[in-house]
Amino acid sequence: MDWLNFALALTVFFASHAVPAIPAVKARGKAALGPAGYAAVFGTLSLVVLIWVIIAAGEAPYVEVWPQYPWMRWSANIVMPVALLILTLAAGQPNPLSFGGRKAGFDPARPGIAGFARHPLLWALLLWSAAHLLVNGDLAHVILFAAFAIFCLAGMGMLDRRRMRELGSEEWSRLAAQTSNTPRAWRLRSAMSLPRLLAFTAIWAAVLAAHPHVIGVSPLP
Predict the structure, then answer these.
(1) Is the four-CA dihedral 194, 200, 202, 204 of positive or negative sign?
(2) How confident is residue 101, by pLDDT bands cut at 50, 70 and 90?
(3) Cα 212 to Cα 75: distance, rounded to the nearest angstrom
(4) How much is the CA Rg of the chain, to the nearest whole Å?
């Protein structure tokens, strides 16, 4: 039953991202709820289903695929701050080339976080998935985090093709001229600001503090 719950949760998670992205569904949703309402409903649904998936993976029978070693936790604690930094720098920034991004305020000559990576939120999720895949060697979590990683990698190309259809190839090329799907670390600095760096510090501290209580295990080595 626990495996069934995990499989159902994972299926619903990917369906909840695939179905709302269908142009006809998206258009009807925005017409009924408005762009802001549609984004709020979609975001809330995604968060609820994500929590369900994580809980279901924890309740699935334990089947070891590989053991955990101390160096794995050190690696995760190096990668996770980077993922959270990217997330903090990307949240709410204009980026018409990726999901949830807006065109207003976006300068193709100075693309900000999009100059680091065209889909920064997907890169943050990919790093989160890779870090947690390494330290969670049981079958359910291997399936979970490997699926998330594949979802992120495949999603970048899918988003590019979708945005190209929506914007037109010429406009997409103009907006994407200074961006890349491959992260360019030296451009991350241009997206930094003191308020966002302070927010990142607070979020990272909150994650470290909450992790033992929410997940049930300390993330520290």
Answers:
(1) negative
(2) confident
(3) 18
(4) 18
